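Page 37, continued from 36.
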C-alpha cells in the first residue's frame, strides 16, 4: 500500500513527520505501512494534533457521494474519526448534505477551500448548527478540505477549540501537512479497496462463465490454478495439480495436439487456443476451450506458461436450447418465417403461429405456396424488394411495406430480412404496423400544430431529460431540436437551481405548477419565463413525464417595472412640489429681510449680508433643482466658466471630505465658456465627487479637470477621477439606472448618477465613464461650448431697487411671515400696503362698496398657490372687479401650463418665490409704470 506513494508525497510526509514526531502518539505513517485500518490511522492523526495542541479537538469527515437516482447530488457528510468528540456530536452530522453555508466542513467540501470560523456564535455558516456546538462547548472551528490529486474533495480535517480563536501561520502549515497525510491514507485505502473489488469482480466473472486459469513454473514444474479450474476438473480444493495427471484425461483425439501445443509454447513461445474434450477427476465429460501463452524473463528466456480452461459444456447442449428457442418463437407476437434459398428459388420451411393469425393463411398454405414468403405478406414493389434481398443474401430492413391479408384486407408491415451464415437459409421477421402508423400520422399532425404555437412546449422524462421540443422552444431558447433532445433541462435552461427544485416540489405535490423562472438562452442571454408545468404519471402512479408550456415575459416585466418606476417618480415629484412650496415660503421672509437689513445696516456689514443672500439664493436654486429632477422644470441658463463651477464645488468638498483625500485641480488655460444652470452643474460635480470619495474609503487622490474636447469638437469636458476601487464590468451598464445602487441600505438612493446624466443631456451634452476594478474610475461630462468669451458670475448683485411714490399695494399671501416682511419692505421703499390672508379676503376687499381704501389700489401682489381660491382664480375674478389694476404673481412651483393659465387670466408680471427686495421692487415699478415685463432672475 505504501508503495503507491509518489515521490512528492514522500517529501511532504517527511515534513509532516518532523512536525508531529514530538508527540508520543504512534506514527500514522507506520500504521499505514503496516496495513492498519483507515479509521485507526485517521484517529491516530487526530490524537497527534490534540497532543501537540492542548485544548484542541480534531475530527475527519468523509464526503460520500449521493445515492444513485437521488435528484439532490450534493455529497453526504459521514463522520470518519474524532476520538475526543462524543457520539452525541458526531451522530447528528452523519447524512447531512454538504453545501455552501452548511457549517465549516460542509462549506469546505462544497468550495474545496479552507474555512476558518473564528467565532461560531457569529459565523453565518453555523446558524443551523450553533445549538449543537454550544451543547458540546465548541466555539471555533478550522476546517481544511482533503483534496485528491484529481481535484475531488474526499472530506475535511477539522480542529475545534472551546474559545473563539484564529490559527497562526505555523498552525496552518501543520494542518496542511496533516491534511496531506490524511489524503495519502484515504487514497491508499481507496486504491486497495478498488483493487480488491476488481479482483472480486474478476472472480465473479470467472465463476459466471466457468473460466479457470492455470500457471506452470518451468523451473520447478509446479502447477497452480484458480478455484474455477479446480471446479471444472472436479479436483478437491486442497489437492495438488499435476500436469501428468491432467494430460491422460484429455480425449485421445485432442491429446497429441495439446501436447504439441504445450511443447511449442514452452520452446518457442507460440500461444495456442483450441476446443477439446476431457474427463474430469469425478468422471464427468466436459468440453472446454483451452488456451495458453508464454511468460518471458527480462533476458527473453521463457520461465512459465499460463492459460485457462473455459467450460463450453453448456453450449454443447444445443438441442435443449433449440427447443427452448422454438418455444419462444412459437409464442412470439411478430411474424417469424424461416426459409431457404435453393437454386435461386425461395421456399418457406417454417412459420410461427403469429404468421397464421396476422395473415389469415394456414401454415400448410404457406409451406405449399409457390411464392413462399410472398404469399399473404407483401404486395407489389415490397415483395420484389424482399425477394431481391433474400436472393442476394443481404440483411435488410424495410418499413411500412404495403401488404394484404387473406381476403384482400390491406395493411402495412415492417420487415427484417436476415440471411443465415450457412449461405442457404434465411429468417424474415414481419410485424403489422397499420395501427401504429396511423397513430404516428395523427401524432405528426398534432406535433405540426404544436410547432405553430408561439409558446415554447417541451416534454421532460422522469430524469428531466428533454424528449420533445417544439418550434416555439427553438425560437425562444435558440437551441435546435437536435441540440436539445436528450439534454437535461436543469443544466440547459435554468439559472436558479434552487427555484427550479422548489417548483418541482410543488409540481409533485399538486400535479401542476405555474410561476416564473429565470432561464437562459443558447447565446447566454438571461430571460424571465412564465411556466405552466403539468405532471403525467404512469399506471403505477409514479412520475413519468413533465409537460412544460413556457412564455417569455422579460419585456413585459421590464415594462411593468418602468411603469412602477414612473409612478414612483411621479410620487416623488408630488412630494417635492409640496416640500418646495413650504421651503419657498420659509425662504421668502429671509430674502426680503436681507434686503431691508442692507438698507439700514452699516456699510461695513454689507459683505456679510451679501454672503447671506448668496446662501439663500443657493438654497432657492436647490429647490428648483429638486423640482427639475422630479418634475422636469428647467433652470435658468447662464454663461459660465468651468473654473467658477469647480471652485465652488472644491470649496465645499475640501471642508467636508476626509483629510486622507488629496485634491488635484487641472483647468486648461484656453478652456471655453459654456451656458448652463450653475446650480445643476454644481450638483453634477458634487455628485461625482461624493461617489469618488465613497470609492476611496482608505484615502486617495481626487482629480477635477476642465479642458476643451481633444478632438476639436465644440465641447467642454469636466472630468472627475479617483484612485478608488473601480467599477466592475457586470454593473457598469447599470450605474445610470434610477434607484440602482451598490451602497448599503441608508447610504445611497441610486439617484446621483441618473441625475448627473439627466442634467448633462438637458444641457445638450453626455457622460462617459472609464473604469477598471482596483484602478479607480473616471467620469467625463461633455457640455457644448459658448462662442462668447465672457461669462457671468453667480455673485452679481442688482442695483438698488427703485422707490415708490406712495402707491397703495394689496399683498395677498396665506403665509403670515411672507405678508409681514413683504409689507415692511414695500413700506420702507415708499409704498402703502394693504394685506389679505387669502384669495377670499382679497375678493371681499374689492366686493365692498367703493371707499378710499379700495378705490386707489395701484397694484396687486398675490401668491399663486393658496387654499380655496388660488392665484389664477383670483386673477380671473379681479379682471371683472378691478380690470385696470396690474397683477403680479409670486410662486416657485408653477409649471409652464400654470403660467399659461395665469397669463390667460390677466397676469402679466411674475416674480420667483422666494424673491429678493430688488426683484420685487423692479417688477413692481415696471407694473406701475406700464412697462413690458422684465426678465427676472
Amino acid at each position: 500500500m505504501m508503495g503507491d506513494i509518489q515521490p512528492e508525497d514522500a517529501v511532504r510526509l517527511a515534513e509532516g513527520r518532523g512536525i508531529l514526531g514530538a508527540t508520543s502518539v504512534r506514527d500514522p505513517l507506520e500504521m499505514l505501512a503496516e496495513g492498519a485500518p483507515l479509521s485507526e490511522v485517521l484517529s491516530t492523526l487526530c490524537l497527534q494534533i490534540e497532543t501537540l495542541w492542548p485544548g484542541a479537538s480534531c475530527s475527519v469527515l468523509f464526503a460520500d457521494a449521493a445515492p444513485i437516482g437521488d435528484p439532490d447530488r450534493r455529497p453526504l457528510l459521514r463522520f470518519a474519526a474524532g476520538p475526543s468528540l462524543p457520539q452525541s456530536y458526531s451522530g447528528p452530522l452523519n447524512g447531512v448534505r454538504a453545501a455552501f453555508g452548511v457549517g465549516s466542513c460542509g462549506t469546505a467540501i462544497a468550495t474545496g477551500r479552507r474555512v476558518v470560523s473564528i467565532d461560531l456564535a457569529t459565523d453565518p455558516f453555523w446558524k443551523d448548527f450553533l445549538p449543537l456546538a454550544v451543547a458540546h462547548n465548541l466555539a471555533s472551528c478550522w476546517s481544511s478540505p482533503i483534496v485528491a490529486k484529481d481535484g475531488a474533495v474526499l472530506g475535511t480535517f477539522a480542529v475545534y477549540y472551546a474559545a473563539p480563536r484564529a490559527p497562526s501561520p505555523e498552525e496552518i502549515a501543520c494542518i496542511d501537512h496533516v491534511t496531506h497525510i490524511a489524503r495519502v491514507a484515504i487514497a491508499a485505502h481507496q486504491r486497495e479497496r478498488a483493487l480488491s473489488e476488481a479482483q472480486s469482480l474478476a472472480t465473479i466473472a470467472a465463476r459466471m462463465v466457468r473460466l479457470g486459469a492455470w500457471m506452470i513454473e518451468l523451473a520447478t514444474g509446479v502447477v497452480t490454478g484458480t478455484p474455477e479450474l479446480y471446479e471444472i476438473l472436479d479436483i478437491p480444493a486442497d489437492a495438488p495439480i499435476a500436469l501428468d495427471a491432467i494430460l491422460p484425461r484429455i480425449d485421445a483425439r485432442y491429446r497429441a495436439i495439446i501436447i504439441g501445443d504445450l511443447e511449442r509454447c514452452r520452446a518457442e513461445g507460440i500461444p495456442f487456443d483450441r476446443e477439446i474434450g476431457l474427463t474430469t477427476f469425478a468422471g464427468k465429460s466436459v468440453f472446454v476451450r483451452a488456451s495458453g501463452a508464454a511468460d518471458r524473463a527480462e533476458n527473453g528466456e521463457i520461465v512459465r506458461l499460463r492459460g485457462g480452461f473455459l467450460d463450453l459444456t453448456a453450449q454443447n447442449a444445443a438441442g435443449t436450447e433449440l427447443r427452448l428457442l422454438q418455444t419462444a418463437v412459437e409464442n412470439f407476437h411478430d411474424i417469424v418465417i424461416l426459409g431457404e434459398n435453393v437454386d435461386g428459388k425461395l421456399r418457406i420451411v417454417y412459420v410461427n403461429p403469429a404468421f397464421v393469425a396476422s395473415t389469415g393463411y394456414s401454415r400448410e398454405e404457406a409451406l405449399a405456396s409457390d411464392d413462399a414468403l410472398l404469399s399473404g405478406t407483401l404486395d407489389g414493389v415490397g415483395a420484389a424488394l424482399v425477394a431481391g434481398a433474400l436472393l442476394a443474401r443481404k440483411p435488410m430492413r424495410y418499413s411500412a411495406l404495403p401488404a394484404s391479408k387473406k381476403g384482400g384486407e390491406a395493411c402495412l408491415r415492417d420487415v427484417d430480412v436476415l440471411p443465415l451464415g450457412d449461405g442457404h437459409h434465411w429468417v424474415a421477421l414481419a410485424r403489422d404496423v397499420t395501427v401504429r402508423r396511423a397513430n404516428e400520422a395523427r401524432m405528426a399532425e398534432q406535433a405540426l400544430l404544436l410547432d405553430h404555437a408561439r409558446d415554447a412546449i417541451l416534454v421532460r422524462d422522469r430524469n428531466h431529460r428533454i424528449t420533445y421540443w417544439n418550434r416555439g422552444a427553438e425560437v425562444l431558447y435558440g437551441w435546435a431540436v437536435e441540440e436539445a433532445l436528450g439534454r437535461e433541462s436543469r443544466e440547459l435552461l435554468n439559472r436558479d437551481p434552487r427555484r427550479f427544485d422548489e417548483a418541482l416540489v410543488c409540481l409533485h405535490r399538486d400535479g401542476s405548477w405555474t410561476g416564473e423562472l429565470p432561464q437562459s438562452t443558447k447565446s447566454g442571454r438571461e430571460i424571465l419565463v412564465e411556466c405552466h408545468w403539468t405532471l403525467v404519471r404512469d399506471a403505477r402512479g409514479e412520475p413519468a413525464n413533465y409537460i412544460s408550456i413556457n412564455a417569455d415575459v422579460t419585456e413585459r416585466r421590464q415594462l411593468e417595472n418602468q411603469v412602477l418606476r414612473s409612478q414612483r417618480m411621479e410620487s416623488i415629484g408630488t412630494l417635492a412640489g409640496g416640500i418646495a412650496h413650504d421651503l419657498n415660503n420659509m425662504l421668502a421672509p429671509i430674502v426680503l429681510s436681507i434686503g431691508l437689513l442692507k438698507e439700514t445696516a452699516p456699510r461695513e456689514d454689507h459683505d456679510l449680508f451679501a454672503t447671506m443672500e448668496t446662501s439663500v439664493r443657493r438654497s432657492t436654486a436647490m429647490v428648483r433643482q429638486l423640482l427639475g429632477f422630479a418634475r422636469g422644470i428647467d433652470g435658468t441658463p447662464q454663461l459660465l466658466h468651468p473654473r467658477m463651477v469647480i471652485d465652488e464645488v472644491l470649496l465645499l468638498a475640501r471642508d467636508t471630505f476626509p483629510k486622507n483625500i488629496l485634491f488635484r485641480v487641472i483647468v486648461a488655460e484656453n478652456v471655453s465658456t459654456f451656458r448652463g444652470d450653475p446650480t445643476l452643474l454644481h450638483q453634477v460635480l458634487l455628485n461625482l465627487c461624493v461617489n469618488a470619495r465613497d470609492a476611496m474609503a482608505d484615502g486617495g487622490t481626487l482629480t477635477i479637470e476642465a479642458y476643451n474636447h481633444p478632438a476639436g469638437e465644440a465641447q467642454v469636458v469636466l472630468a472627475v477621477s479617483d484612485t478608488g476601487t473601480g467599477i466592475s464590468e457586470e454593473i457598469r451598464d447599470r450605474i445610470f439606472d434610477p434607484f440602482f445602487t451598490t451602497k448599503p441600505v441608508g447610504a445611497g438612493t441610486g439617484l446621483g448618477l441618473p441625475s448627473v446624466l439627466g442634467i448633462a443631456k438637458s444641457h445638450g451634452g453626455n457622460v462617459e465613464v472609464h473604469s477598471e476594478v482596483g484602478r479607480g474610475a473616471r467620469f467625463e461630462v461633455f457640455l457644448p461650448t459658448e462662442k462668447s468669451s465672457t461669462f457671468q458670475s453667480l455673485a452679481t448683485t442688482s442695483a438698488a431697487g427703485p422707490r415708490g411714490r406712495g402707491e397703495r399695494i394689496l399683498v395677498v399671501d396665506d403665509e403670515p411671515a411672507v405678508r409681514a416682511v413683504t409689507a415692511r419692505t414695500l413700506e420702507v421703499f415708499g409704498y402703502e400696503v394693504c394685506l389679505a390672508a387669502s384669495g377670499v379676503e382679497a375678493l371681499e376687499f374689492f366686493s365692498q362698496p367703493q371707499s378710499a381704501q379700495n378705490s386707489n389700489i395701484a397694484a396687486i401682489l398675490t401668491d399663486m398657490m393658496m387654499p380655496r381660491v388660488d392665484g389664477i382664480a383670483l386673477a380671473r375674478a379681479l379682471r371683472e372687479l378691478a380690470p385696470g389694476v396690474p397683477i403680479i404673481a409670486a410662486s416657485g412651483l408653477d409649471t409652464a401650463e400654470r403660467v399659461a393659465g395665469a397669463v390667460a387670466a390677466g397676469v402679466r408680471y411674475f416674480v420667483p418665490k422666494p424673491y429678493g427686495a430688488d426683484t420685487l421692487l423692479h417688477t413692481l415699478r415696471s407694473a406701475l409704470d406700464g412697462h413690458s415685463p422684465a426678465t427676472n432672475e
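The two ends are 93 Å apart (CA to CA). Flag for discussion at group meeting. The first strand starts at residue 57 and ends at 64.
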